Amino acid sequence: MEYEVRKAEGKLGILIPGLGAVATTLIAGVEAVKKGISQPIGSLTQMGRIRLGKRTEGRHPLIKDFVPLANLEDIVFGGWDVYADNVFEAAMHAKVLEPMLLHAVKPELEALQPMKAVFDKSYAKNLDGTHVKEGAHKMELAEALMEDIRNFKEEHGCDRLVMVWCGSTEKYIEPSAVHQTIEAFEEGLLNNDPAIAPSMIYAYAAVKMGVPFANGAPNLTVDIPAIIELAKEHEIAISGKDFKTGQTLMKTILAPGLHARALGVRGWFSSNILGNRDGYVLDDPDNFKTKEVSKLSVLDEIFKPESNPELYGDMYHKVRINYYPPHGDNKESWDNIDIFGWLGYQMQIKINFLCRDSILAAPLVLDLALFSDLAQRANMSGIQEWLSFYYKSPQTAEGLAPEHDIFKQLMKLQNTLRHMMGEDLITHLGLDYYQELMESL
Amino acid sequence: MEYEVRKAEGKLGILIPGLGAVATTLIAGVEAVKKGISQPIGSLTQMGRIRLGKRTEGRHPLIKDFVPLANLEDIVFGGWDVYADNVFEAAMHAKVLEPMLLHAVKPELEALQPMKAVFDKSYAKNLDGTHVKEGAHKMELAEALMEDIRNFKEEHGCDRLVMVWCGSTEKYIEPSAVHQTIEAFEEGLLNNDPAIAPSMIYAYAAVKMGVPFANGAPNLTVDIPAIIELAKEHEIAISGKDFKTGQTLMKTILAPGLHARALGVRGWFSSNILGNRDGYVLDDPDNFKTKEVSKLSVLDEIFKPESNPELYGDMYHKVRINYYPPHGDNKESWDNIDIFGWLGYQMQIKINFLCRDSILAAPLVLDLALFSDLAQRANMSGIQEWLSFYYKSPQTAEGLAPEHDIFKQLMKLQNTLRHMMGEDLITHLGLDYYQELMESL
Amino acid sequence: MEYEVRKAEGKLGILIPGLGAVATTLIAGVEAVKKGISQPIGSLTQMGRIRLGKRTEGRHPLIKDFVPLANLEDIVFGGWDVYADNVFEAAMHAKVLEPMLLHAVKPELEALQPMKAVFDKSYAKNLDGTHVKEGAHKMELAEALMEDIRNFKEEHGCDRLVMVWCGSTEKYIEPSAVHQTIEAFEEGLLNNDPAIAPSMIYAYAAVKMGVPFANGAPNLTVDIPAIIELAKEHEIAISGKDFKTGQTLMKTILAPGLHARALGVRGWFSSNILGNRDGYVLDDPDNFKTKEVSKLSVLDEIFKPESNPELYGDMYHKVRINYYPPHGDNKESWDNIDIFGWLGYQMQIKINFLCRDSILAAPLVLDLALFSDLAQRANMSGIQEWLSFYYKSPQTAEGLAPEHDIFKQLMKLQNTLRHMMGEDLITHLGLDYYQELMESL
Amino acid sequence: MEYEVRKAEGKLGILIPGLGAVATTLIAGVEAVKKGISQPIGSLTQMGRIRLGKRTEGRHPLIKDFVPLANLEDIVFGGWDVYADNVFEAAMHAKVLEPMLLHAVKPELEALQPMKAVFDKSYAKNLDGTHVKEGAHKMELAEALMEDIRNFKEEHGCDRLVMVWCGSTEKYIEPSAVHQTIEAFEEGLLNNDPAIAPSMIYAYAAVKMGVPFANGAPNLTVDIPAIIELAKEHEIAISGKDFKTGQTLMKTILAPGLHARALGVRGWFSSNILGNRDGYVLDDPDNFKTKEVSKLSVLDEIFKPESNPELYGDMYHKVRINYYPPHGDNKESWDNIDIFGWLGYQMQIKINFLCRDSILAAPLVLDLALFSDLAQRANMSGIQEWLSFYYKSPQTAEGLAPEHDIFKQLMKLQNTLRHMMGEDLITHLGLDYYQELMESL
């Protein structure tokens, strides 16, 4: 496989379904960064470096200086929401960023009016959408979205577009017949099949319009055969699902460490308290189920209890999310981990993470948008497994277990970039340093 | 570089200076495992698996089935201590393992009498050694150790030996002239140079006798040019320093995770409470200094503040160890980490690790003994950087910065084993899965 | 009111419905204390002291030396359970105490066979009782219990009896017509009224037999007009409800402290993880409801939001109990408290209590038994509000708000004892020390 | 003793040595409260209520409506500092309050210029005073302070004055001969005796001028016979020492709760991290010693290990304060408490308090000023033990052990107020409710 990565010329439009806390925090932040009053901390594409060559070469360029990414100056934002508030109003309402910061970019944010959303209350019972599209059937809604996309591209003179889902978690559903083929799916759109979730309609519209799609929620969305097939047909990059922030981020950091040391785990209890709109939606059991499945999956894949029954065979894993208004967007997690070591002696780890939900998620949206655009320019279509790093529940080729260990995910991401640019892959073997040393004696 | 790994035939003697809590926990544990009443949890050599080939091949053998390691049945223990207690008495005194377990292996432990130790009170003011060697000068002490080694090997019919330092942390010293060459060092031994610490005398004796040496404390020991040179001359594997357990283990797990995500760190405060002999020795500021240097180094190397000044340039890192008798060997750490994300917004992580010092350290001794013996049989002499995984402060070739990120250390260890056995190195690139997929369409 | 406290002569029988973790921990403990191999820590009647007179008098006798309590030597235990295991078997199964300790009192525990229980699965869906009484109606069951009581007293030659409910939490019910009068209640017994819970049948039997009753669970039990009336008629001491241990204990310690300092509270989130039978029963929402009501009530009464709306008017209080098998009886609670101080500035308190459920509860059973017996001998019949100290949800006279502040509860308990024995009540005024001082100048 | 409490007419001047974080937070706050833009949370005199009479009477007036306190409108602030910054500048520098809030009261704060301080570098090595008084001897400095007081009173037309020490902790000293009598002390002032600390010079000046004095730091200050004698002679109210905030506040809340339940304590480890000027001063071991003595004393008095050796005889108590700049004024404490219950079974409590040092201290300064003024108007001169509630290390009459239990302290404070105003003292006996009930049947 040879890559010829097209340059990032012209404007990149980032289209976002769901202009809530995460999206407004991203947009306000990018504007603040462009004005030089803030920094894009937490964004690998903006702040991260990558080692190239041997340790002794001392090559550690910024990623954005190594691979051709769209420049922040060339980004244009757009999006849909079930509320008609402009992005400034929505950001004030979200209470994530200080009013002082928001006022500094007020004109840019006020100019951003959401387009009417595709909404289905049965998928988010705790929400009441008022700013929504109407249509005879779901295909008509999909076409309305495509019309939005077309107009947006033209109006803003965009060279390329990407779409990142930042909407709420939808209720839990399992893939069914309507999701299996493009034909069945399109028929479902026409028949208003209830198993077609709003997020899938966005994904369908995006792929049909040649727009890469990244899914930040635990919904199925692009993780169904119909959309995967469509993406291959149109040669579009897709990825998902569920931004990996907060507690799950910590889990996929810590669990590989315990596993590396062959320490056993008897129980892992995870509690979360948060008080934002996301917390409110997840207070509904149907929506929590979707999130729970996403959150529970990570440990099994990392610990592989079937291969290590003495260490992880009896692990009890429980995740709770509690809506707790006093905290607002300041999500807090508390984990109790019961581990055991030498001769079975027990120990405990407690982690208390006082985090901020949208602050952790916003840079992931930026990175996914830029990397999806990069993949598209490198002709890497279909599922982008190398973006697993950003997801709680990474989408992979059928039959391939997702990798949850964040350090393997990082290695995969970095080696993909190196491979793309024709640099040597890194294995950390490093015996050569010592060989040379010995030869030189 | 081609490896021809000799098989692990005959008995392996593990010689341990310092038969305190860690060593007795190891020895009692190995005996219990041999009797089938317990399991060697936390030992990578005994419980860990390694992936070989492509993900879809499903090859994940136990490490001990993949590389030729000494069998637990073939291990014989021996050691030195400043107290005359046999291993059973010392283990009872250490209060790490339950009396019931210790009684189950009482005969084996009682049979183990420590040899008289080389001791110098100026290196451990809080200890009072009574079971110690006397000699006109340090060279005479070194020769007495060599005599011990010779006798032990003969007496127990050992094929091979390894030595692992499990003694207390010695007071802080900087390398000086006497440590620079073999000649200066040997002259220093004859002149009773105060800069030659007891642990160096053990290391000298080991290397001269052809015995690989691993250093579990933060002392210089084998990390001086004289011993490195000697190890090359005699083609002996050496490694160090300071077993990575508890808080530092957590640090080298968590810090790479924060760095991976380009999250900034303003402060990291680490407090420890422990009540064992180790805690008592570290209550002396001179000895704590040695440990502090070892503990503080890890973050700088992982975060590289010089390359990432906006993220880590102002990080304040403080480590405290408090002697707290009520906890005994149950070391507890508490970390407060002040991080910042998108636009500089602050978050906090608190980690409370209720660990057990010796339970975490014991399997490291076993692994280091077995892997040092393996390296020796593979003709890998000198500094074993691939064993960095086990150390707080890994020893490397001069001019090469130590790698502290536990996941890079693990990758290095695993790829070294793969390399040794002629297997493909793993890069986690994995694009081929998708290529094949696309070709098959 | 004049007290003439009868002496504690002869044997005291302690009858316990529910011989599970708490009861077996109590019984094994009392036997161990009697053998001199352990101490009754946590029991105010056995270990606590009381100050008498002025501070300068230095009078601080043990409570058991100050008021006439039954001696541990004179206690005989009996009880009912839905499982036929004897107390040794039940204690081994509960896994609270070490096998070694239980074996030291094995004969005493094995001798204790539970009587058949009154059980109604609709009140505890997660339990399956097999060792249960049968009867045509609930009055017949009550009579069978009375027969048990009569036989027990005779068989063991008891002078006096007390009953303490240590059974599971029953499902939530509200008081209804059948609970309002003795007549309605007795009719309900005959008619098998579903609103009469098993614990009420025990309470009815006890009071009818002249046996004081203390209620350790959050069930209504003796907190209904019918039983209160019956207790007055028979001049019997009753009290309840729900042993105050663990998280609620901490809450009624901490909340008065915050209130004392006029610190505001915005939110209090309480999470619990436990893995014993109690946790399993509470996994059923109906049973959890009963516990939740009991647990939620404490803060409102202490903070009085209606009097202090600026400080506590918007407080959000949430309690979660999670069944988490790896912990067994080692209940662990985690509280996050969002407080605010001067000018509304926010602060947080996190409390992590690694407690042991039955270890905390067992001494409360002992104290309640001994103090109920004392009250009875002092002719203090009806509701014993001075025992509020032991309860999550103290029973009071109608129209009187329960006092939850543990320090006011303690003051009430101590001043009641002082009053009973004719000592001066203590007010902590203490100005006299300074008056005398000034006069002496 | 009969009280005739004079009314609070005219202006009250509050004079503060040390216009640092605490004092500026207080002053800015009072100004903000006077403007109606904030509330005096945490101040018992402003927000607290007191129960009067029987529970059923429902009388719970605000304390400020019950006893005659100075009104916030009638307060005038003044003070001394070693830096010349006005209060606005000092408050901005302290970074406790948001700039927006400080700007809202900028004119009031800017008008407040500190008077030159009495400073002695040997008592606070880490400070460099530049705005200091000079004098031939300490008596001259005392006279200069008296002149300041006289001028302030006249200039602002104050009816009454109080002084509250808010300066840094001075180095540790023990009382010596010079502190024993007024004569020796005054001779020492003339001779520049090094054992006379700056805070004592302020206290001497205050008492000589008829100004009540409250001591917010752990220094001896007014807790020496010379000043106590002087206070009696001049009939002046004095009290001390060391504002009870943060960790010690939590300790005197929690420890009485554990003691109430006869739970044993094996160890209590307390760690603090803070980054303000106070933390910097306490980084010097001499100054920390003064604070440590104050902090360590509280547990012994509450647990009384000599009376309860089985429960508290072996308690190990350790307190650490760590200077940690990233936190600024946001002091954070972490406590680990090793307790044991029934049969000696061990449990642990961990408390993590994310507090704000000056936010907790400011309202204490206000309360102490207002209550000291009240005491003075009630002719209660000498040591005010009833203000123990506010102090880590309460000053008492010689031979009288200080009371540390915050709930006894509160009872003492409240009953003193009730006593002062001729209300019944409260004992929480409450048996009468039940007697009446029974009589009414």
Automatic annotation (TrEMBL), chains A, B, C, D:
UniProtKB keywords: Membrane, Transmembrane, Transmembrane helix
Domain Myo-inositol-1-phosphate synthase GAPDH-like residue range list: 246-358
Domain of life, source organism: Bacteria
Entry-linked SUPFAM superfamilies: Glyceraldehyde-3-phosphate dehydrogenase-like, C-terminal domain, NAD(P)-binding Rossmann-fold domains
GO MF annotation, one: inositol-3-phosphate synthase activity
Residue ranges of the TM segments: 12-30
GO-annotated biological processes: inositol biosynthetic process; phospholipid biosynthetic process
PANTHER family: MYO-INOSITOL-1 PHOSPHATE SYNTHASE (PTHR11510)
Annotated family: Belongs to the myo-inositol 1-phosphate synthase family.
The name this protein goes by in its record: Inositol-3-phosphate synthase
Natural source organism: Nibribacter ruber
Organism classification: Bacteria, Pseudomonadati, Bacteroidota, Cytophagia, Cytophagales
